[in-house]
Design a protein that fits this description.
A hairpin with an 8-residue loop joins β9 and β10. This protein has 21 helices and 14 strands. It starts with 6 loop residues before the first strand and ends in an 11-residue tail after the last helix. α14 packs across α16. The chain has a five-stranded parallel β-sheet, with helices on both faces. Helix content is 41%, strand content 12%.
Length: 476
């Protein structure tokens, strides 16, 4: 295997500024970049001594001289094992399908963040299952914004939704913690849609995608001449969201001084742009997302204690997918139905063997990674059902684990036996069945009672007797 410093990347792009940016980013991980300004140069380069040493290709869709998908097919015909990443401004599912069928390894929508580009390049040149692959495209599939559209019956997941649904109706600042890909952005959109501010502005700022020296200005704004390069006044996101809701994603990646300023804003409710002499009050509801537990980061001196304390009042914990493996069949079928609606694709089923394979993987990228993996499999599937053979990378990583694993239980599972082989108490089984029904029917308590064959009053009495908490209050 070549060492990182020996890796060679070919960038097919005729824009000098973007070429310099991509080359600098790739250099962070040991890539040396050669530039091809047109398709003829790119194809000719493959036959050179340098071309034989290539480890990957990045192609801009608008490079002159040929259709991008035709060029991808030509490159793959000459070098079948060479990963190709396509950069494009188009979010068309049909273009993504065509590019992948032509041989593209990944499909990146511009403007692409540095982390996203490097992750895609890393995934394309290793054997790992792609994490955020096709993320900007597949995230467009979920157009519904209500809590009922969030699939899952695992108790921890339903408990998180119940807390979020209750908090949505308040004006309280909410912190949502969960690993990347667990659905935090979808949850905050559902909370906004269910809140009293639903018709007011919603703004989302991703702190992880903004340079550290710019994020303070993005949030708080700045005055003209406040610092070198401040040629005009800039209104910050807090002021833009006045009267509405501001979501700050990846708050755990904010610089310390910005964390402290945000803690001050939560305490006083006023904003002072950089370089301004006076502050002004704004009415903004904050929904904050973090990939890590802020309390743990604060205890390790990696996060401002004052801000962590200010956000400790209401926290929603979204569990990772590996802790809710019983939800994978329902999620897979839901995503396949949505994927089948996209141009160039069709509805597909999924076999038990494929579900067992999906259930045996840890999914470090969580629900987002599952969705992207299903999209890729659907693109290349020739049959009516996805089988385990449609996930070759996953099969090679999981190995015999999928065959040895018990069948994935639909809807979270109700265990009848204890680990020592004895039957569980009837009361515990009954409680699990009720929790399962609440999750399956999305908290619609009238429907839950009807399906269980009991009255609503009896259902609520059992909730109290069995100590089942966090059932959604809104259900009727």
């Amino acid at each position: 295997m070549t060492e990182p410093e020996d890796r060679l990347l070919m960038l097919i792009d005729d824009e000098p500024a973007q070429s310099r940016l991509v080359s600098a980013l790739a250099a962070r991980e040991g890539w040396r970049t050669i530039i091809a300004r047109d398709t003829e140069t790119a194809i000719a380069t493959l036959g050179t001594r340098q071309g034989m040493q290539l480890g990957a290709i990045i192609l801009d869709q608008w490079v002159p001289g040929d259709d991008a998908c035709t060029l991808i097919a030509e490159l793959k015909a000459r070098r079948p094992a060479l990963p190709i990443l396509m950069l494009t401004t188009s979010s068309s599912p049909l273009l993504a399908v065509e590019a992948m069928r032509a041989g593209a390894t990944d499909y990146l929508i511009k403007p692409v963040s540095p982390d996203r580009l490097l992750q895609a390049l890393r995934a394309a040149t290793t054997r790992e299952v792609p994490n955020a692959e096709l993320q900007p495209l597949t995230e467009k599939f979920d157009t519904t914004l209500d809590f009922d559209s969030m699939i899952g019956a695992a108790p921890a997941f339903r408990a998180a939704l119940a807390i979020a649904a209750k908090a949505a109706r308040t004006q309280t600042t909410v912190l949502i913690e969960g690993e990347s890909g667990t659905g935090k952005e979808m949850l905050v959109r559902a909370m906004h849609a269910a809140s009293p501010r639903a018709k007011a502005p919603l703004r989302i700022v991703n702190a992880g995608g903004i340079p550290a020296n710019q994020i303070e200005s993005v949030l708080f704004g700045h005055e003209k001449g406040a610092f070198a390069g401040a040629f005009e006044r800039h209104v910050g996101a807090l002021q833009h969201a006045d009267g509405g809701t501001l979501v700050i994603d990846e708050i755990d990646r904010l610089p310390t001084h910005v964390q402290q300023r945000l803690a001050e804003f939560l305490a006083r409710g006023d904003v002072q742009p950089i370089g301004a002499r006076h502050s002004f009050r704004v009415d903004v509801r904050l929904l904050l997302c973090s990939n890590a537990a802020l309390r743990d980061l604060a205890e390790a001196d990696l996060f401002d204690t004052g801000l962590a304390d200010a956000l400790a009042g209401l926290i929603v914990h979204l569990p990772p997918l590996r802790q809710r493996a019983g939800d994978i069949p329902a999620l897979a079928r839901h995503f396949l139905a949505r994927i089948g609606e996209q141009p160039g694709l069709r509805p597909l089923g999924v076999t038990d063997g494929a579900l067992a394979l999906l259930g045996a993987y840890d999914w470090p990228g969580n629900v987002r990674q599952l969705q992207a993996t299903l999209f890729r499999a659907a693109v290349f599937c020739d049959g009516e059902m996805l089988t385990a053979q449609d996930f070759p990378n996953l099969s090679s990583m999981v190995g015999d684990t999928a065959r040895a694993a018990p069948p994935v239980s639909e809807g979270g599972g109700v265990m009848l036996f204890t680990p020592d082989g004895n039957l569980r108490p009837l009361e515990e089984i009954e409680a699990d069945v009720i929790r399962l029904a609440i999750g399956h029917y999305r908290g619609r308590m009238t429907e839950v009672a009807r399906r269980l064959g009991i009255g609503r009053s009896t259902l609520y009495r059992k909730l109290s007797e069995l100590g089942i908490e966090n059932a959604p209050e809104r259900a009727a």
